[in-house]
């Protein structure tokens, strides 16, 4: 009998996760290593890369890491060439690196807008462009983009991020349209609100110890009444990188605990005492990983 679990194996695949020293990128890479992939990552500076290498080592994973800014095409090309020589050609790319700037749009400077668009949208274009020729030549490849609730919804202060993540959804569909004929699949993970350093300010308590109103809001919008954990995303990340998803292309799969299916409840009805220990744990994530 064929072992169907082999469909999810990444044995001998080279997986490049951008911006993966910590946070969601680290969680994706760790999950890939656990199902057999060789891990390659970049980050924006030496300190983060070294910390990343240490983080992987602690998990018993050898990861090839180097400094590379996803917005710099020359650095990206050099990185991909070095990886090809030292580890092998890239089979899986996860365009994870991303930033957010929470600034009301009427106060946002053009330079801040451009930086978000550059990292969150142009970065995935540059990195995908760098790996596509070799994937086409070898007749397979997986590209996974980091979309967001903001690929579908807006909210105050995140105009550039929403524009970038909405654009990334369409880049996902276009890579699927243009390169599906080479057996390359490009899909996206659309995480809901996940407890990582990027979202830590949204959970910070008030000076009097009170719950952050945004934390209360997100819990009232999520049927499970909790933030996502990095582990919640591992299964989908493996699925989209593996043979099991070979006929899934151009899709954004939302993994949001049901936010996008639910109108939400009155935040005033939540029982705050239930959440106290969870909030403390989230605070640990913030200080330990950043
Ligand atoms: P994170 O904790 O901020 O990690 C992102 C990583 O990317 C950091 O290591 C960051 O370095 C790096 N980076 C920033 N600019 C870069 C550049 N130009 N070149 C290379 N690396 C760069 O973010 P996260 O929460 O893990 O999120 C990862 C991805 O998922 C992002 O694209 C994010 O938008 C998306 N996402 C997150 C959530 C969530 O709830 N957390 C939900 C939906 C989507 P620095 O530390 O120097 O910034
Ligand atoms: C915000 C958040 C979000 C999340 C995520 C939601 O300020 O609203 O940071 O944008 O990080 O992308 O899916």
Structure, described:
The structure is a single chain. This protein has helices spanning 23-34, 46-58, 73-86, 110-138, 159-179, 213-221, 234-241, 276-289; strands at 14-18, 38-43, 63-67, 92-95, 141-146, 184-191, 252-255. By secondary structure, the chain is an alpha/beta fold. The protein folds into 2 domains: 4-194 and 229-257, NAD(P)-binding Rossmann-like Domain (Rossmann fold, 3-Layer(aba) Sandwich), CATH 3.40.50; 196-228 and 262-290, no CATH class. Strands 3-2-1-4-5-6-7 form a 7-stranded parallel β-sheet, sandwiched between helices. Strand 4, helix 4 (110-138) and strand 5 form a beta-alpha-beta unit. Helix 1 crosses helix 7, helix 3 (73-86) packs parallel to helix 4 and helix 4 (110-138) runs parallel beside helix 5. The mean pLDDT is 94. Residues 100, 102, 148-150, 155, 158, 161, 191-193, 198-199, 202 line the site of D-gluconic acid.
CATH C-level of the largest domain: Alpha Beta
In what range is the share of β-strand residues? 5-15%
List the helices and strands in order: EHEHEHEHEHEHHEH
Number of extended strands: 7
What's the shape?
globular
Structural Rg: 19 Å
Bound molecules: NADP nicotinamide-adenine-dinucleotide phosphate, D-gluconic acid
- Reported CATH architecture of the largest domain: 3-Layer(aba) Sandwich
State the main characteristics:
7 strands; binds NADP nicotinamide-adenine-dinucleotide phosphate; alpha/beta; single chain; seven-stranded parallel β-sheet; globular; 2 domains; Rossmann fold; binds D-gluconic acid
């Amino acid at each position: 009998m064929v072992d169907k679990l082999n469909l999810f194996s990444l044995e001998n695949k080279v997986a490049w996760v951008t911006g993966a020293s910590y946070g969601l990128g680290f969680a994706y890479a760790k999950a890939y290593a656990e199902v057999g992939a060789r891990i390659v990552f970049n980050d924006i500076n030496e300190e983060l890369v070294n910390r990343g290498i240490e983080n992987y080592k602690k998990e018993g994973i050898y990861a090839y890491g180097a400094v590379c800014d996803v917005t710099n095409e020359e650095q990206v090309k050099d990185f991909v060439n070095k990886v090809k020589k030292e580890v092998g050609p890239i089979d899986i790319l996860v365009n994870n690196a991303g930033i957010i700037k929470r600034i009301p749009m009427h106060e946002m400077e053009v330079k801040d807008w451009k930086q978000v668009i550059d990292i969150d949208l142009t970065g995935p274009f540059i990195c995908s462009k760098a790996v596509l020729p070799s994937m086409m030549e070898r007749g397979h490849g997986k590209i996974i983009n980091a979309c967001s609730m903001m690929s579908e919804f807006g909210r105050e202060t995140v105009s550039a991020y929403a524009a970038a993540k909405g654009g990334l959804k369409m880049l996902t569909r276009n890579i699927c349209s243009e390169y599906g004929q080479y057996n390359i699949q490009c899909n996206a993970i659309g995480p809901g609100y996940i407890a990582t350093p990027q979202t830590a300010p949204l959970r910070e308590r008030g000076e009097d110890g009170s719950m952050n109103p945004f934390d209360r809001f997100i819990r009232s919008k999520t049927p499970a009444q909790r933030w996502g954990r990095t582990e919640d995303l591992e299964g989908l990340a493996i699925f989209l990188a593996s043979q099991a998803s070979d006929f899934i292309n151009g899709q954004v799969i939302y993994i949001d605990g049901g936010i996008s299916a639910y109108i939400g409840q009155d935040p005033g009805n939540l029982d705050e005492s239930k959440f106290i220990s969870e909030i403390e744990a989230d605070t640990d994530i913030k200080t330990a990983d950043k």
